[in-house]
Amino acid sequence: MPANLNDFALVVGINDYPSFRSLTGAIRDATDFASWLKDQNTGGGLPDANCAVVLSTPDSGRPAHEQIDEALEGIFNAVAVEGGRRFYFYFSGHGIATDQTKNHLCLAKWSEKWRKNALDVQDYLNTVAATGKFEEIIFLLDCCRVRVLGAGGLVCNLALPRPNNAPDTRIFMANATEVFTAAFEAEVAGSAQSDNRGHFTQALIEGLQGAAAGPGGGVSAADLKNYLETNVPRIAAERKHAQTPEVTNGLLRATRFGSAQPNAIAGWPVTITFSAARAADILLEDSQTDEVRRGPTSTGPWELHLNAGLHLLTDLGSNEEKSFRVKAGMGVHHVQF
């Protein structure tokens, strides 16, 4: 049975901007985070029905404003019946800022002409909080906050009256980068690469899967904040980028995300990309034949930190193997399997 029946999420990933620069990794980042949310073992523990995932499709100009609001309406309808505890909003795509306090999330139709076709972050946050249905609201935004003159954001079309007995709402807000700066969230800019990933989301998932976990298991809000602030710049620097997140934590000290056990990041960065022809689970072992990771190719590319030495990948369907050696001090290792 799912652990958190009263937790809900809206996850948005937009690769496809028909009239602007399309991205290559935003959808993968969004689906990876949705997978963590629905992980019943050590993840967010949400039932599938509680996690709305809205993704772009090529040349459609979608999602549009109404698709986001309709997904949010579905959550509000469910909460009215079941009640809510925690609400997650995750976005990966292009983002802009119009001043120090106004962030906007670019919808698929955004362009230099359609520069107001974006979601007003503060208004959507206020709309969710005003329902009085959630004790905790988590906003995780893997996008730029570059300044665009004459731009703006669309407000949410939904509004629910706040009940008199509504609980206090506590908020955790994490932006991938500082205001008026870029985030390297799977940028394409004409590149044909298929494994571009958001530095923010990489750090986020690393932390939630155990790198930021405390001794008793699970990740506290304070530890997640610290992990993002420390490791987004680290990951960015490994790829010769500069990126500093801004994280505001208003949650209680006892708050925990998931139940992963501590798994400190150590070693050297390795990115493992899988052939599209592979369909079975993959096993990764170290030089002592200890299991490092196991999972389907759909979770790739794997971005890991491994100790120096020999490692072995095995396709558990075909038993095909590939060994590779991690050498200290050589930067990011790229392995194709």
Automatic annotation (TrEMBL):
The superkingdom listed in its UniProt entry is Bacteria
Pfam families membership: Peptidase_C14
SUPFAM superfamilies xref list: Caspase-like
Q: Which Gene3D superfamilies match?
A: 3.40.50.1460
Q: Which residues form the Peptidase C14 caspase domain?
A: 8-250
Q: Which GO terms describe its biological process?
A: proteolysis
Drop me one GO molecular function for this one.
cysteine-type endopeptidase activity
Record-given protein name: Caspase domain-containing protein
Q: Which organism is it from?
A: Rugamonas rubra
